[in-house]
Amino acid sequence: MKKTIIKGTGRYLPPRKVTNEDLTQWMDTSDEWIEQRTGIKQRYWVPEEGGVGTSDLALEASKIALDRAGWTPEDIDLIIFATLSPDIFFPGSGCLLQHKLGLETTPALDIRQQCTGFFYGMATADAYIKSGMANRVLLVGAEVHSTGLDLSTRGRDVTVIFGDGAGAACLEGVDTEKSIGILSSCLHAAGKYAEALMTEAPASRVNPRLTVEMFEQGRHFAKMDGKNVFKLAVKRLPEVSHEALDKAGVSLEEIDLVIPHQANMRINQFFQKTLGIAEEKMYHNIQWYGNTTAATIPIALDEALEKKIIGPGSTVLFAGLGAGLTWAATVYKFPENSISR
Ligand code: ACO
Fold first, then answer.
1. d(C-alpha 190, C-alpha 202), whole Å
2. What is the 3-state secondary structure (H, E, C) of 194-229?
3. Residue 260 CB: number of other CB atoms within 10 A?
4. Which residues touch 205 (CB under 8 Å, ≥6 apart)?
5. pLDDT at position 338 over 80
6. pLDDT tens string 244-272
7. Alpha helices (H) along 111-155
8. Is 197 in the pocket of ligand 1 (CB under 6 A)?
9. DSSP symbol at 291
10. Which of 148, 161, 254, 328 is 20 to 30 Å from 295 at the Cα level?
11. Would the CB of 38 count as within 6 Å of ligand 1?
12. How would DSSP label each residue in 79-99?
């Protein structure tokens, strides 16, 4: 039976480091507030003058992942691109990345599931691979948030948490009876909470899609009911994790590392306690990157592999919640003979 395994990973962060202190030049905030409430110390943003889009960050992460997988771009059967911040309104960033990789006709699709985009992407890749529609899938999660953030005090609750970045994974189908690769995927959505976290404009339901009034009201910036999202996250993350563990037939004790979506360090500390897993088994890197949305999971995965916290034979639980609302978890077991660094 076909199993979906990770052959290579890569990450890329743009070079402009923005510390909490740097943010105080634009808005009324403080290093102390941001670190205490979120755990974030700094994030990376694309150059202020523009010219770098989401697919540019994705290209850099993809090149590293392809190299580590031993693939050339021509080996890719399908590109799946997860982002809430596509380079342009349409076509999708997957198509732009496909061209930047020098490919002519390889199919490419975008996934607009925000913080769970990489989870939906893993499940989609797994389904394509198991159905025989593709055997080598390049899955990317990438975001450029910084060009869409309200730098005034009005937007400070949202602006301080987001960073730019990209992560990529090469996923391949292998024929084996062993219990390896993606062991389970659990995906959920609740559209009734769409307004708890959304960027409203430009909007096709409004004519024209962005009016001067909407622009002045800042309706093209993300709005978040942070407290509500926080409460839902600490409830849903343990719930979906147990669902994914049960589906995979894996116990919590068999998990070597939990890689949660990086939205807020406090959410993940609550999650760790409710789940009942040791502190050192919960991966955090939000301090350095902020919330890079669809990129948090592949960036953290790539880092954890590089630091050798996980490697051949490790079992990892991924879990996340974000705009939609959507929430998801995946259990993955690395084969014994692969992905060493
Ligand atoms: N600096 C200083 N003060 C601030 C800031 C800031 N950056 N932001 C808000 N404040 C103030 C508020 O104005 C408020 O002041 P008041 O008490 O005088 O009215 C006070 O701090 C408390 O504000 P809250 O919004 O209630 O702060 P909270 O403790 O809820 O923290 C936060 C806000 C960090 C956003 C938190 O709610 C959170 O992390 N929520 C979950 C985020 C999340 O998981 N999102 C999903 C993923 S993202 C995605 O899917 C795209």
1. 22
2. HHHEECCCCCCCCCCCCCHHHHHCCCCCCEECHHHH
3. 26
4. none
5. no
6. 999 999 999 999 999 999 999 999 999 99
7. 117-131
8. yes
9. B
10. 254
11. yes
12. EEEE-SS-SSSSS-HHHHHHH
Compute the distance between CA of residue 268 and CA of residue 282 in angstroms, rounded to an integer: 8
78-82 vs 136-143, strand pairing mode: parallel
162 and 290 in contact (C-beta within 8 Å)? yes
- Average pLDDT over all residues of the chain: 97
Neighbours of 312 (CB within 10 A): 11
pTM of the predicted protein model: 0.96
Spatial distance between the Cα atoms of 46 and 15, rounded to a whole number of angstroms = 7
Ligand 1 centroid–CA 171 distance in Å is: 36
Percent of the chain surpassing pLDDT 90: 98
Residue 134 corresponds to which tokens in the numbers above?
A: 């593709």
* Centre of ligand 1 from the C-alpha of residue 29, in Å: 11
Length of the chain in terms of residues written: 341
Long-range contacts, stretch 280-283, CB < 8 angstroms, 24+ apart? 281/255, 281/256, 281/257, 282/257, 282/258, 283/257, 283/258, 283/259, 283/309
Whether the per-residue pLDDT at 142 is higher than 60: the answer is yes
How many Å apart are CA 267 and CA 281, to the nearest integer? 15
Residue 339 has pLDDT above 80, yes or no: no
Tell how far the Cα of 12 is from the centroid of ligand 1, in angstroms: 27
For the chain, domains (ranges, CATH) are 2-175 (3.40.47.10), 181-333 (3.40.47.10)
Taking the C-alpha atoms of residue 193 and residue 201, their distance in angstroms, rounded to an integer, is: 17
- Catalytic residue positions, numbered: 115, 261, 291
pLDDT digit string, tens, across residues 25-51: 999 999 999 999 999 999 999 999 999
